[in-house]
Description:
This protein is α+β, with helices and mostly antiparallel strands. Helices cover about 25% and strands about 25% of the residues. It has helices at about 25-40, 135-150, 165-175, 180-185, and strands spanning about 45-50, 60, 80-90, 95-100, 110-115, 115-125, 130-135, 165, 190-195. The strands form 2 sheets. The protein has a 6-stranded antiparallel beta sheet with strand order 1-2-3-6-7-9, with helices on both faces. The protein has a 3-stranded antiparallel beta sheet with strand order 4-5-8. The mean pLDDT is about 95.
Amino acid sequence: MAVKKIIEIGHKVLKLDNKSIEDFNSPKLKRLIRNLIDTMKDYDLIGIAAPQIGENYQVFITQPRKTHARNLGKSDILRIYINPQITYLSKETNLIYEGCGCVPESSIFGPVVRPSEIEIEAFDENGEKFSLRCDGLLARVIQHEFDHLKGIEFLEKVTDNRKMVSWTHYRKDIRNSKEQKTASLITKVEYKVVS
Length: 195
């Protein structure tokens, strides 16, 4: 399909309401998913939501893997989430430095505290409903992309603006730190079809 330009932070499209998907066989949905995959891979991201490419629909994808910004011990497969709902958030939290494709050249990273384990229900590209319980960077990227569907940017959740860093300092001091790697480690991935 096509690599799309990612909408930059501050653009009104990132704050608009996002429509639910009704027709899972729609060519428009298939094209949107393909464009999300192509764009995520081209920008070397681990997740992307439809509003980030100017499409206001309840759709995002994830694929935690080794990228220029992430150095993971365990990766995850490409997953598609349509009309998602988070059904569980653990009381236990962790801090991971996040970045975003909506920040030009992914040049800013900041500390964000989120629940360390979550459960989400969504539909896949074939309209099959599933639930996924997970932790680590997979739980993190799901929450980050889910926020995009609610018009929330990660910068709104940074715990301490004084600890924001550039890409250079993130790469040098944080990306491979024990704290970042421990919090990002994926140890739980429980997928099941919901009837």
